[in-house]
């Protein structure tokens, strides 16, 4: 699910108080982002939304949120629980590596 600056508070911060929310910060010009995108899409189908919500935020179109969370390198993936970042990684990871990272951070 693609989110925007205006939806971030509701769709990430508030929702993360009930279920963990993963945010993939990306941009269309970013090669590693294009490699990670299908991995994130596949994983979003593998996990039920009562276990984790998986979202994407385009930093070019949503600069306010990108600046707030100090996104300097992309892809940048952050996991939010109870309104706070509880895990993060930057750069490409394979599907098994992303799943392992999610499972270890849930």
Question: Can you summarize this structure?
Answer:
By secondary structure, the chain is of the alpha/beta class.
Low-confidence stretches: none
Structural class: alpha/beta
Sheet of most strands: 5 strands, mixed
Strand coverage percent: 25-35%
User: What do the pLDDT scores average to?
Assistant: 97
| Cα-atom radius of gyration | 12 Å
Report how far the terminal alpha carbons are from each other: 19 Å
N-to-C SSE series? EHEHEHEEH
Q: What is the CATH C level class, in words?
A: Alpha Beta
Number of domains: 1
Q: Could you give the topology of this structure?
A:
Layout: E1 2-3, H1 5-14, E2 21-26, H2 31-46, E3 53-58, H3 63-68, E4 76-81, E5 84-90, H4 95-105
Parallel strand pairs: 1-3, 2-3
Antiparallel strand pairs: 2-4, 4-5
Q: Could you describe the 3D structure shown?
A:
By secondary structure, this protein is of the alpha/beta class. It has a single domain (2-105), classed as Glutaredoxin (3-Layer(aba) Sandwich), CATH 3.40.30.10. The chain is 41% helix and 25% strand. The chain is built from four helices and five strands, in the order E-H-E-H-E-H-E-E-H. The protein has a five-stranded mixed sheet. The protein starts with a strand and ends with a helix. The mean pLDDT is 97.
Features:
Glutaredoxin, 5 strands, five-stranded mixed sheet, 4 helices, 106 residues, globular, alpha/beta
């Amino acid at each position: 699910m693609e989110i925007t600056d205006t939806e971030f508070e509701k769709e990430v911060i508030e929702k993360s108080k009930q279920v963990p929310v993963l945010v993939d910060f990306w941009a269309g010009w970013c090669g590693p982002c294009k490699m990670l995108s299908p991995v994130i899409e596949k994983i979003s189908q593998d996990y039920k939304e009562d276990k984790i919500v998986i979202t994407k935020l385009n930093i070019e179109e949503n600069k306010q949120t990108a600046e707030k969370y100090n996104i300097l390198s992309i892809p940048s993936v952050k996991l939010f629980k109870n309104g706070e970042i509880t895990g993060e990684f930057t750069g490409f990871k394979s599907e098994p590596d992303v799943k392992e990272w999610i499972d270890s951070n849930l």
